[in-house]
Amino acid sequence: MRYISTRGGIQPINFKDAVMMGLATDGGLLLPESYPQISRQELDQWRSLSYPDLALRIISPFVDDIPVDDLKGLIQRSYATFNHPQVTPVVHRDGVHILELFHGVTLAFKDVALQLLGNLFEYILAERGERLNILGATSGDTGSAAIHGVRGKKGITIFILHPHGKTSPVQALQMITVGDANVHNIAIRGTFDDCQNMVKALFNDLQFKEKYSLGAVNSINWARVLAQVVYYFYAWLRVTDEGDRPVCFSVPTGNFGDIFAGYVAKRMGLPMGRLLLATNENNILTRFVRDGDYSLANVVATVSPSMDIQLASNFERYLFHLYDQDPGRVRAAFAELRECGRISFTPAEMEQVRADFCSATVDQAATLETIGSFNRETGYLLDPHTAVGVRAALDLLPSDAARVCLATAHPAKFGEAVEKAVGTPAPVPGSIAALAGMETRCTVMDADLEKVRQFVVEHVA
Ligand SMILES: Cc1ncc(COP(=O)(O)O)c(C=O)c1O
Ligand SMILES: N[C@@H](CCOP(=O)(O)O)C(=O)O
Questions:
Q1: Residue 145: which residues within 8 A CB-CB, separation 6 or more?
Q2: Nearest CA to ligand 2 atom 12
Q3: Pathway of this protein (predicted)?
Q4: E strand or H helix at 291, and its extent?
Q5: How far apart are the first and last CA of the chain?
Q6: How far apart are the C-alpha atoms of 257 and 408, rounded to whole Å?
Q7: Which pLDDT value is given to residue 32?
Q8: Residue 140 Cβ < 6 Å to ligand 2
Q9: Would the N or C end of the chain have less CB density within 10 A of its end CB?
């Protein structure tokens, strides 16, 4: 399998080079030239596979340049860190299936991909005798999962930018209490979009990227999306165990990485209905799906802070497919966005979009109400991001389908919102309780690209 850029400016490359390149050198995002097709018969044969074995089946057709035994070892090591034997179990409550993606070290779905990406980086760097300086932006969860995926790993230094004071306290502590010398946290006085724009600007400075061997942990990196494809298959196999029925996924969405992984699963042949794209008040993507209005607005702070995002990075990958893989049209769309703050779509394009997705915005009051009512009715505690997806699923998805809601974080990461919703604090897992009183390390700075660049230069190993 080879990888190409959504902007059309690179020669096809192999998987390991795609992992190391992160953002394509022409400013686009990398995608495989084609998607392997999984037949219904194969799916049925996969029912009894463990999560790591299923992951190997799904990931290996995308990877030509790592021997399969090595890939198997990397996958097994990555999922051995999870605290649930099924890695991503599915539980059934009140007419919805909750796909629990929060059993990894930092209690969010990001661990599923970032444990593997950390191990892939280590493997490739050892093979090549190289070093890597990771630069990432986070609204709260990617940062801690990435830090925990690479902390203490040889040859890797990591710089994570987060919006100062805009993550939950637990999310911040999970990042800034990590004392390893290879970890640097930068709190930016600004939004997640400011952080992501600066990270992309530094990647787009190709001389700088090459001189300092920069690598990406955000879903800019194709390996992130690929690892996330696996749990759509895993969940589908669980909810169809007792017979065939339509399956729909509801995905709380910010940077469009998780839902794009679902879109890839569908393109690979996984039978599913339209993907439900659920947003909080930062709803540019809902406006797009419902009204064809893709226009930038200001970021609003909400009780689901990890989704407080305007410019969703992976949307570009979807656009590439929507435009029949024409990189010229992707470039033109982003030129329009730069010049006019919006992208316009034809009626035929919007018809395709609405065949792929349905969408709903769930505001903060409805999010808190859903956490409260779901808890009263089922005893299950949702985190605010998951609640956005559950509310949207209950409102929009057909009740005769298996409605699978991606549970993207553990409720204890967002204790304040959960307590407000249910009246009592969420039970706190030991790993979170242990953060209290730990020493912290973080540099606060303005959203100033040159200051961030200088910090990186001064701290690269
Ligand atoms: C807990 C949580 N839920 C949902 C999302 C949205 O996922 P994505 O950015 O892949 O759309 C995020 C952030 O990525 C998150 O951290
Ligand atoms: N919500 C994310 C934002 C970054 O998304 P990514 O999937 O591109 O890494 C976060 O938690 O940081």
A1: 104, 105, 106, 108, 110, 111, 113, 114, 115
A2: 138
A3: Amino-acid biosynthesis; L-threonine biosynthesis; L-threonine from L-aspartate: step 5/5
A4: helix 284-291
A5: 33
A6: 12
A7: 98
A8: yes
A9: C
Condensed to tens digits (0 to 9), the pLDDT of residues 268-324 reads 999 999 999 999 999 999 999 999 999 999 999 999 999 999 999 999 999 999 999
How far is it, in rounded angstroms, from Cα 121 to Cα 131? 9
Contacts (Cβ under 8 Å, ≥6 apart) of 428: 412, 415
Kindly give the distance from the C-alpha atom of residue 365 to the centroid of ligand 2, in angstroms, as a whole number: 23
**C-alpha distances in angstroms, 441 versus 93, 334, 366, 456?**
40, 37, 36, 16
What amino acid positions are annotated as catalytic residues?
110
Of 159, 195, 197, 255, best ligand 2 pocket probe by most atoms within 8 Å of the beta carbon: 255
Which pLDDT value is given to residue 242? 84
pTM of the model: 0.97
The pLDDT tens digits for 324-333 are 999 999 999 9
Q: Which DSSP string corresponds to 26-66?
A: TSS-EEESS-----HHHHHHTTT--HHHHHHHHHGGG-SSS
- Give residue for tokens 């490739």: 124
Number of continuous H segments (helices) and E segments (strands) in the chain: 20, 15
- Where along the chain do its domains lie? 90-107+223-422
Q: What pLDDT band is residue 243 in, cutting at 50, 70 and 90?
A: confident
Burial profile 314-351: b = 16 or more Cβ within 10 angstroms, e = fewer: bbbbbbbbbbeeebebbbebbeebeeeeebebeeeebe
What class, spelled out in words, does domain 90-107+223-422 have in CATH?
Answer: alpha beta
Largest CA distance in the chain: 58
ipTM metric:
0.99
Ligand 1 atom nearest to CA at 256: 11
